[in-house]
Every structure is written in C-alpha cells, then in structure tokens.
Amino acid sequence: MTSQDIPAAMRLIELEGWNQTERDWTRYLRFEPEGCFVAVRAERLCGTTIAQRYGTALGWIGMVLVDPEYRGQGIGSRLLEQGLAFLDRQGIETVKLDSTPEAHSLYRGKGFADEYEIERWGGSAAPEARIGLPPMESQDIGRVCAYDAMVFGADRTRLLTALWQEAPEYTAVIYSGPDVAGYYFGRAGLRARYLGPWVAGGDRELAAQLLAAFLVRAAGERVFVDICAQNIDAGSILEAIGFSRLRRLTRMYRGPNRNPGRPSVICGIAGPELG
User: Fold this and answer.
1) What is the CA radius of gyration of the chain?
2) Domain boundaries, the chain
C-alpha cells in the first residue's frame, strides 16, 4: 500500500460503513509502510489489511477489508497471510485482532483463539453537566504511556503520542497524587467521534467522570466507543446516558499471549484496528 491508494481504500471504508478516515490510513502507513497491503485485480483496489507492531512482543492485524464484488475468492485470507508474514519476519511472538462475527471462522482457521468480547456502543454527545478536564500536555504523555503499557500489555507510546498530537482536545488524564488514575483519547471519525482508549483503573466514578469530560468536548456529535466486555462498569455507564449496543466483536490472539494486560480495567479500547 502507498499513499496513492488511500482514496480507493476510503471507498472500501464507505462501502462497509466503517468510521476510519484518511488520517487513519496515513498514520498506518507512517508507522508500518511495509506492513500495509492492498489486493488489486484488473488495476482496481479490492482489498486491504494492515499489520502494526507494539514493541517487540505484540503485533496487531486490522483493516481487513474486501470489496463486496470480490468476496468469496480468498482475497481476505491472502491479505491476512501477508500481514501475518510481515509480523513473523519481525519476530513478533503474539498477534491479536478484533474479529467481526462474519470473519471469525477465517481467523480460527489461521490459528487464532478467542480472548474476550468487545461491544460497540453509540449515542449522542449530550452531556447533562458541563464537566470539563484540561487536555493532556506533553509532560503527561510519558506517564500515561507507561501506565497504558501495564493495562494493555504492550508499549503503545508511538500510537498514543500520535493520537495526542492529532487531536489534543480529545485527551485528558486524571492523577491520584503522582500516579496516573485514568485517561482517555479520542478522535474524529468518518461517521462519529470515537472515544478510546478510555481507562479508569477499575474506578466506576472515575470512568463516568472521564466519559462526561469527553462528551463535553464532543458536544452535539454522534459518538462511538468499543468497550471491553470484561470491564463491569462501561456498559451500564453508557446505557445510563442513553447509548445503545450496536455490534459485537471478538478479540482473538495467535501465539503465547504472555502479557495479556488488565482488560478488566479498560473501559474502551483504542479501536478494533488498533487494540
């Protein structure tokens, strides 16, 4: 994949009804130019996938898209194999992805096992109270990334720094003394503002406070958030403000999964294509 492929890749996004933007594709290419792949038939881009690395232990597969006119021909399988081969060449021992129900059998056939469920929720950003938090500043990023590595199970400094640089107004952190207690990142999507990652350390009140602060920033806009089903608070917090469950995904892994992180304290993930 190259930057010249982005308009055609966006056509697939629109056909599928996904939320990613040209900025997302540009970020994928900047991070892993040799890990982004396209399928082309008769000079027409008909499929995509990306393979991203988080440090040396974890790789992520995302954006497995195939034009509806070309499905059933093994294109998605071949794209997945290209992404996995890229990560294998880098010596990545564990690979993860978030699977739709339709693709679940494909990934099982490639050696992936289920880890836990992800639920997409959506609603309107109509905060009842004007509760705001200041955006993260440069001195916050290192501390947030260190905490995030513990809860996610791998180092996402490159990703989180980029999300902050792209949209600092959609970030915030809360401290308990000198320690990070919770944080969120967000971004504008094609169809909605996206909240994630949203992490509150298992504290329901803090999770609700962070969500309220994000909704102030996104006031009047539609919002998507993909929650980790192992978190006992996120769904009920969203339901209480009128959000509804839109779809389910399954987080899957291939390899030893030696560092699963702490999914029970993650309210919202960074995105199905990001982890």
Assistant:
1) 18
2) 3-92, 120-268
For residue 110, give every residue at least 6 positions away whose Cβ sits within 8 Å of its Cβ, in sequence order, or none.
Answer: 77, 80, 81, 84, 254
Q: What CATH architecture does domain 3-92 belong to?
A: 3-Layer(aba) Sandwich (3.40)
The alpha helices in 90-137, defined as continuous H runs, are 104-109
> What pLDDT, in 10s, does the model give residues 35-61?
999 999 999 999 999 999 999 889 999
Q: Find the distance separating the first CA and the last CA of the chain, reported in whole Å.
A: 21
CA distances (Å), 2 to each of 8, 24, 26, 36, in order?
Answer: 11, 13, 9, 8
How many CA atoms are closer than 13 Å to the CA of 81, on its beta-carbon side?
7
Q: Which residues of 13-34 are buried (b: 16+ CB within 10 A; e: fewer)?
A: beeeebbbbeebbebbbeebee
- What CATH class is the domain 120-268? alpha beta
**Each residue of 85-136: pLDDT tens digit?**
999 999 999 999 999 999 999 999 999 999 999 999 999 998 766 677 999 9
Cis peptide before 134 (omega within 30 of 0): no
Tokens standing for 61? 């597969």
Q: Calculate the alpha carbon distances from 254 to 52, 74, 115, 263 in Å.
A: 15, 20, 10, 17
Residue 162: enclosing H or E segment and its boundaries? helix 157-166
Other CB atoms within a 10 A radius of the CB of residue 91 amount to 10
Q: Which structure tokens are listed for 181? A: 């207690």
C-alpha distance from residue 169 to each of 67, 164, 184, 205 (Å): 35, 8, 11, 22
Return the structure tokens found at 263. Answer: 């999914």
Spatial contact of 152 and 274, defined as CB atoms under 8 Å apart? no
